[in-house]
Amino acid sequence: MNIHCFQHLTFENPGTIKEWAEHKGHNINYTLFYEDNFLLPDVKDMDALLIMGGYMNVDEEEQFPWLKEEKRFIKKAIDAGKKVIGICLGSQLIAASPGAKVYPGKEKEIGFFPVTFTDEALHHTFFNHFTNPYTVFHWHGDTFNLPVNAQLIASTDVCKHQAFTIGSNVLALQFHFEMNKEIVEDMLLHDAHELEEEGTYIQTKDEIRKAFHYLQQNKQDLFLLLDKFFAA
Question: Please, are residues 50 and 77 in contact by the beta-carbon 8 Å criterion?
Fold first, then answer.
C-alpha cells in the first residue's frame, strides 16, 4: 500500500504510524510543507493520505499559502474514496475541507487526558477494542464542527468533538495516538511557551513525562485500529 503523508513541521512526524507501516511492508512518501519546494502527489498514485499536526490554524492562508491547496487536495482525496487519516491539525483540515467551521476551543488541552468514546464507537468494528475512559496525549487549542455525514467518535469534558469518522474511509483524531517519547520531547522543546499559559487542561513538563507509560498502550491500540481501518 502506498501512503502519502502531509507533514507540516519537522518534528511532528508519523511516529508509531510509521512503525506500523514499516512492519506491514507499506510505503510512506511525504509532502513536507515546511520546505519551499514541496510537491503534491497525484491522487491516483496513492492508496491513503495521512495528515499530521502543526501549530498553524486552518484559515491562516496569508501566512501559509499552501493551506488552501492542501484543503483542496484533502477534499479531492476523500471524494476519490481514498483512505484518509488526520491528526490534530490534520483532523481540523479534514473538517474544513468540505466547509465545516474550525474555531478556538473553550480551553487548550496540552498533556495526557482521558477521552470518552461514544456508545456507537464502542460498538463499531474500528473501536470496539477500546474502553472508557481512555487516556491519550493532547496538544491543541482549536476545535471544529462535524462535517456532513460525520459520526462522532470521542469527546473530552472541554472538547466535544475529539474524533470522527466519515463512512469507513475517513478517520479524524484531534488527539495524538501516534506519539512516542521523542516526538513529545521535541514538542516540549519547540512549543514550551504554551505550557506557561493559564489553563485547567495544561500540564507541566514533569506531569507530561510522568504519563509516558500511556504511550505503549496507545501504540498497541493504534496498531489494531489501523489494521481494522485499512481492512475495511
Answer: no
2-231 has which CATH code? 3.40.50.880
Provide the edge-to-edge strand list for the sheet that holds 27-32: 27-32, 2-7, 48-51, 83-87, 170-173, 163-166, 150-155, 102-117, 134-144
pLDDT at 205: 98
Q: Which amino acid is at 67?
A: L
Report if pTM > 0.85: yes
Q: Which residues, in sequence order, are CB contacts of 201 under 8 Å at separation 6+?
A: 107, 108, 109, 110, 111, 113, 138, 158
H and E: helices and strands count for the chain: 7, 9
Domain residue spans in the chain? 2-231
Give the residue-averaged pLDDT of 58-78: 97
* DSSP at 171: E
Count of residues for the chain?
A: 232
Q: Containing H/E element for 32?
A: strand 27-32
- Quick: pLDDT tens for 84-93: 999 999 999 9
Q: Which phi and psi (to 5°) does residue 189 adopt?
A: -80, -50
Q: What is the pLDDT of residue 181?
A: 98
The closest of 10, 22, 88 to 226, measured between CA atoms, is 22
**Per-residue confidence (pLDDT) for residue 203, from 0 to 100:** 98
Beta bridge partners, 164, equal 152, 172
